[in-house]
Amino acid sequence: MLDTKLEQSERGDCAANLYEQDFYAWTQDQAELLRLGKWQALDIENLAEEIESLGKQQKQELRNRLGILIGHFLKWEFQSELRSKSWKATIREQRKQVQLNLKDNPSLKSYLEEAIGEAYELALALVVRETPLDYKDLPSECPYAIAQILDPQFPEGSDR
């Protein structure tokens, strides 16, 4: 019994070292251990951290897509004379990516309002960086409702 615990401890130390030294090899090792049902040999702490990280990536992806989408809404609204085919394509693409993310991860719908608030800061930075507009020229809070953001016919004229 002592030998088994020592082996498990050494295996855990080895897995933790592999995690630090060769992440890809660690992932392959952990996947194989899962498939074989070798639960005691798993690097539980790092596995849990990586799984949480995957969830955070989905939230970040949603925020980033919303930031680009809302940024283009702002450009569309505040620089109407410069509207372009490129802006229309970006609006369509980003909205579709947001919708796919929500379809693939339905639990993110409960995070949508918060994500929009966080994404708005990204949108403002995009607009300020890409246009002559400054922060003082733009609303301090997102002026678009969730329904508008997800509506393929919003903003008017962007669907043609």
Can you describe what's shown?
This protein is an all-alpha fold and 160 residues long. It folds into 2 domains: 1-42, no CATH class; 54-160, no CATH class. Helix content is 71%, strand content 0%. It contains 6 helices and no strands. It has helices at residues 2-21, 23-36, 44-78, 85-104, 112-130, 146-150. Helix 3 runs antiparallel to helix 4. The longest helix has 35 residues, at 44-78. It is elongated and about 60 Å long. Residues 1-9 have low confidence and may be disordered.
Record field, number of beta strands:
0
Give the SSE order as H and E letters: HHHHHH
Span between N and C termini?
A: 71 Å
Q: Major β-sheet, in short?
A: none
Whole-number average pLDDT? Answer: 90
